Amino acid sequence: MEHQQHDEIKQITLYDVASGLKPQASSPSTWRARYILNYKRLPYKTVYVSYPDIDALWIRLGLSPMDQGPNRPKTFLPVISVPSEDGGPPSVIADSINIAIFLDAEYPDTPRVLPPNTRALQIAFAQNVVISTLAPAIFPFILPRMPATLDPRGAEYYKSTREKWFNIQLDEYYPRSPEAFQAQLDKIHGALDWMVLLQQWRRKMNGSWDPLALRLQILVSARCSFG
Ligand SMILES: N[C@@H](CCC(=O)N[C@@H](CS)C(=O)NCC(=O)O)C(=O)O
Predict the structure, then answer these.
(1) Is the CB of 154 inside a 6 Å radius of any atom of ligand 1?
(2) CATH number reported for the structural domain that contains residue 171 in this entry
(3) What pLDDT shows up at residue 210?
(4) Which end of the chain lies in a sparser environment, N or C, as judged by fewer CB atoms within 10 Å?
């Protein structure tokens, strides 16, 4: 019993976006953190937070808003809280890439998520491929469908923020004509070509890297998603 209590105290908390789905976990951003925790086999519990409550969570956890560039939230999930070994305050980490860096350093006996010396590549990839190319290509397919997957307060928040940020009406954003649909698909193919290139490069440079770690690396690199 005592042992159990000890384990509970040590457990990491993953803060995830609340949804109306079962199971609730659906945000690609928070899935990156979940993949990392699962890959390292670290025990954690999940706390679901509705979009409009994320600001208050950040204040409660003592986090300062982070500038992610224009039209992107300054407070967001995933966040993890990792209890300290010595009874001090927990380490609270936001942003999937920071979570990967922190957990690789904090738990060196678990499989590494980020290959050494690849930070520059990952930032270039995230900025130029995922944020600038892939995200705008998939947004018209994803964004209009998001509110239906969320809890009612989250849905309202999501619709109003995205309509403001991207200057769109969510209901009219889906590419309905065959031409518009095909044009969007072509954009996605362009971004996927980059992913193939990255994988070929990796094979040449370091064929021995665990393929699952590579997938995680790409997911973590893909810092921007539908947020
Ligand atoms: N760079 C962040 C992006 C996180 C992000 O944008 N998360 C979205 C959920 S998919 C969010 O919490 N958005 C809050 C909001 O829209 O106010 C990461 O990789 O962790």
Answers:
(1) no
(2) 1.20.1050.10
(3) 57
(4) N
